[in-house]
Design brief:
Helix 5 crosses helix 24 (632-647) and helix 14 runs antiparallel to helix 15. It is built from 24 helices and ten strands. The chain is extended. The chain is 54% helix and 9% strand. Among the domains are: 33-78, no CATH class; 407-501 and 590-606, no CATH class. It has helices at residues 14-20, 66-79, 107-120, 131-140, 149-173, 221-235, 251-265, 281-293, 297-312, 314-326, 344-356, 358-367, 378-401, 410-428, 435-461, 467-479, 483-517, 523-535, 545-559, 563-569, 581-588, 593-602, 610-622, 632-647, and strands spanning 35-38, 47-50, 56-58, 88-92, 98-102, 178-186, 190-199, 205-214, 241-246, 277-279. A five-stranded mixed β-sheet has the order 8-7-6-9-10, sandwiched between helices. By secondary structure, the protein is an alpha+beta fold. It is found in: Nucleus. Pfam families: Dimer_Tnp_hAT, hAT-like_RNase-H, zf-BED. Homodimer. Keywords: DNA-binding, Metal-binding, Nucleus, Transcription, Transcription regulation, Zinc, Zinc-finger.
Length: 677
């Protein structure tokens, strides 16, 4: 039997067919998305079953659907809570205790987080198109829409532009002057990099990379000076530069000379540039020690090749450490170190590890014929001990200069003086085999000391543990009776610099006072004053009270001690006490107003370009062979963003070893040194 829905065939055409079919009324109510109609024996009776609880209800057209809707609302309210009750975000509080808040998906924040992931992890932009990445994002956040590598690159550039404006605002608000470090790096193109250093309003030392771009030929001092001036102008700090720290490249002298002339024209340089140029101290020490080690290459080469021979074979290496452990009872967690020839500090660590395993190496030389050509005699071992003690001073000083938390300028004087003292003592000492090496090192060091001891000494004087007495003591140990001449020159230059800050402070306060009092004067009084000035020329009325007050002020100023004199007369703090020198000057800024301004700028001078060179080390990870097609603006955005994120503390927990994590004991991945030059 045909159902009621079966069309009735007619002889006429399509229109007749359509008119003969009785259309069934569609169920437009949304309740039928959650309900199912049931067939009943009685055709006049209709039923509906809930898809969730399987309850059956009447579904007559006369009954409507209100009762079905009430049921669904009541049931879904019980079972399906608001999804915000289940999706929560843990937000760290200032006290370190996580707090819970309702989570709402933010596509912009998610894209920003992906940009941070790509930048700080040095990942390729193509990562966002990898199936595994998209699978991870789909599981982590189903609402996230996939993006292409081009979109990811645009997001990074937009993120960089926003952060650049924020850093530019920080530089504009910097209460003092700004110190620069600059370095060049050769890859496929020559890249130039500038890093800004300053002390912020909270007296914390800050560092930001402000440029990492390719240079265009010619690569000379004039071209680089033009690039630097343009960069400073774009950042709005061309009149706030105090110093620039450079390596000893020949073109830097031409660049600095050009910069001094430009800054003199703008009156943006202090003391005629006496404190403007600084040579990288760590770079100088690196050159000095490398030059000296070349003369001791025989014994160093034996140790280097011997360690390479032992570590070349895994079986031989295992036997060596077994002998060291079982026969000589040494702690074999300390491994033999191989050096990198271009890093003298790794050579020192190699010598230190060889001395630790000296007895084992001698034992090995007696039993392995192939190793005997690398075995050292007793006299050679004595020379290694002396050489290692000599290099330890340089190594310790360099570790301070090259620390990850870049030190203030006051810490350099003591380290450089120790190097100077060791060189002098070694030349006069009994170790004749070191004499030729040390004399060659002295020639390079004396040139650096003669040019930059002024800046190092002034920074040390502003350390309350050192002051003038410690500087005098250090110069006495070097120059003897002639030390007073050097100290007097340093002190006179420091006074000249301090006078510049006093003048600047007075001009600032007078301009503020003058702007406040411009309209305070009565026009009638002005006319009287003008009349009095004219009459004073021919013996008329003259009130000397104001002139007398000026005379008293000038006399008292001449007889008063300056803030610098008062600071130097106060007793020093304990020499080896642990203090934050910036915190000291922050607390002393009320008492020593102008002197604290000088200390803030002088202590911010970076005596080392390690900050710049670390940027180039990071740049090598950015410009890999697989990413060599990145545009210069993209490379700059990635390098600068990474530095700015680290400055904000983003990577504070990255690299921190957890309690349940084990160190990797694979010797093939030995880290030759934690100090980079």
């Amino acid at each position: 039997m045909a159902s009621s829905n079966t069309p009735i065939p007619v002889d006429d055409g399509f229109n007749e067919y359509e008119s003969a079919v009785k259309r069934q009324k569609s169920t437009t109510s949304k309740v039928w998305d959650e309900m199912t109609k049931l067939d009943c024996e009685n055709k006049n009776e209709l039923k509906a079953q809930c898809n969730h609880c399987k309850t059956i209800f009447s579904a007559k057209s006369s009954s409507g659907t209100s009762h079905l809707r009430r049921h669904l609302n009541s049931y879904l309210k019980k079972v399906n809570k608001d999804i915000t009750q289940y999706t929560i975000a843990i937000q760290p509080s200032p006290e370190g205790v996580p707090s819970i808040k309702n989570y709402k998906f933010d596509a912009d924040e998610c894209r920003k987080a992906i940009s941070t992931f790509l930048v700080c992890g040095k990942h390729s932009f193509r990562t966002v198109e990898e199936p595994a990445f998209r699978y991870m994002m789909r599981i982590a956040s189903p609402n996230f829409k996939n993006i292409s590598r081009h979109t990811a690159a645009r997001d990074v550039l937009m993120y960089y532009a926003k952060e650049r404006d924020r850093v530019k605002e920080e530089l504009a608000k910097a209460p003092g002057l700004i110190c620069l470090t600059s370095d060049n790096w050769n890859s496929e193109h020559t890249n130039d990099e500038y890093t800004a250093h300053w002390v912020d309003k909270d007296w914390k030392l800050q560092k930001r990379i402000i440029r990492f771009r390719a240079l265009f030929p010619p690569y000379d001092g004039l071209n680089i000076a033009d690039e630097l001036v343009l960069c400073l102008s774009q950042w709005g700090i061309d009149k706030k530069i105090f110093s620039i720290t450079l390596d000893n490249a020949s073109y830097n002298d031409v660049m600095v000379s050009c910069l001094k002339n430009r800054f003199r024209a703008n009156r943006a340089i202090l003391c005629d540039g006496a404190f403007f140029q600084v040579r990288c101290c760590a770079h100088i020490l690196n050159l000095i020690v490398k030059a000296g080690l070349e003369l001791a290459d025989d014994v160093v080469g034996k140790i280097r090749n011997g360690i390479r021979y032992i570590k070349k074979s895994r079986i031989r290496r295992k036997r060596f450490y077994d002998v060291a452990d079982k026969s000589f009872h040494l702690n074999v967690t300390k491994k033999l170190r191989q050096d990198v020839c271009v890093r003298w500090n790794s050579t020192y660590l190699m010598l230190e590890s060889s001395l630790y395993y000296k007895d084992v190496l001698d034992y090995w030389g007696q039993r392995d014929k192939d190793y005997q050509i690398f075995a050292l005699s007793n006299e050679e071992w004595r020379n290694v001990v002396i050489l290692c003690k000599f290099l330890k001073v340089f190594y310790d000083v360099t570790c301070i200069f090259s620390g990850s938390n870049y030190p203030t300028a006051n810490l350099y004087f003591r380290g450089v003086w120790k190097v100077h003292k060791v060189l002098l003592d070694t030349v006069k000492g009994p170790y004749s085999f070191l004499t030729p090496m040390v004399k060659q090192m002295q020639e390079k060091f004396n040139k650096y000391w003669a040019e930059y001891s002024l800046i190092l000494s002034c920074a040390a004087i502003l350390d309350p543990r050192y002051k003038l007495n410690y500087v005098q003591y250090c110069f006495n140990t070097i120059y003897g009776v002639h030390a007073s001449d050097f100290v007097e020159t340093i002190l006179s230059n420091l006074r000249l610099l301090f006078d510049e800050y006093v003048k600047k402070s007075k001009s600032t306060s007078s301009s503020l006072g003058g702007s406040c009092n411009v309209s305070d004067k009565n026009p009638v009084d002005s006319g009287l004053d003008e009349h009095n000035d004219n009459s004073a020329d021919f013996g008329g009325y003259f009130d000397e009270s104001d002139d007398y007050k000026r005379y008293l002020n000038e006399s008292s100023t001449r007889s008063e001690k300056s803030q610098l004199d008062i600071y130097l007369e106060e007793p020093e703090l304990e020499l080896n006490s642990q203090i934050d020198v910036l915190d000291y000057w922050s607390k002393s800024s009320v008492r020593y107003n102008e002197l604290s301004l000088l200390a803030r700028d002088l202590l911010a001078i970076p005596i080392s370009t390690v900050a710049s060179e670390s940027a180039f080390s990071m740049g090598k990870k950015v410009i890999t062979p697989l990413r060599s097609s990145l545009k210069p603006k993209t490379v700059q955005a990635v390098v600068c963003l990474d530095d700015w994120m680290r400055a904000k503390g983003f990577s504070a927990e990255i690299g921190c070893k957890k309690d349940n994590e084990d160190d990797d004991d694979d010797e093939d991945d030995d880290d030759v040194s934690s100090v980079a030059f």
